[in-house]
Write a structure and sequence with these properties.
The protein is an all-alpha fold. It is built from 5 helices and no strands. Helix 4 packs across helix 5. The radius of gyration is 17 Å and the shape is elongated. The mean pLDDT is 89.
Length: 116
């Protein structure tokens, strides 16, 4: 029971972190929407991307940020802010990989402890 409580607390703080990153990325998403070709390349991110679409495993916008180290020239956005959002997005995708590995390892660990 304690493990479940611990996992729920971690997921709660993870979700709060996603909301924080989403607030930071809102202006970037607005700037990307002004350019339809860039909007298409980035996977049509919405204003609720990080705490709604990202949780539903839509990683297109994060992959777009990962691939574009330099901000696209047509964007009217601050480069430092773009760099911060990009770094936060890369950190989040690494957390997603770590979360998936933890789920798999927990499953394997519990299978070894139960003799059927």
């Amino acid at each position: 029971m304690l493990e479940i409580f611990f996992i729920l607390i971690i997921l709660f703080f993870y979700w709060i972190f996603l909301i924080y990153v989403n607030g930071k990325a809102k202006n970037l998403v607005e700037s990307i929407r002004k350019h339809p070709e860039l909007d298409k390349l980035s996977g049509y991110p919405s204003n609720t991307y990080f705490f709604w679409e990202f949780i539903r495993l839509d990683y297109s916008f994060v992959i777009f940020l990962w691939k574009n180290k330099q901000m696209p020239q047509i964007l009217e956005f601050d480069f430092k802010e773009y760099s911060l959002i990009r770094n936060l997005a890369i950190f989040i995708i690494c957390l997603e990989v770590f979360r998936g590995l933890c789920i798999i390892l927990i499953f394997i660990f519990h299978q070894r402890n139960y003799n059927l």
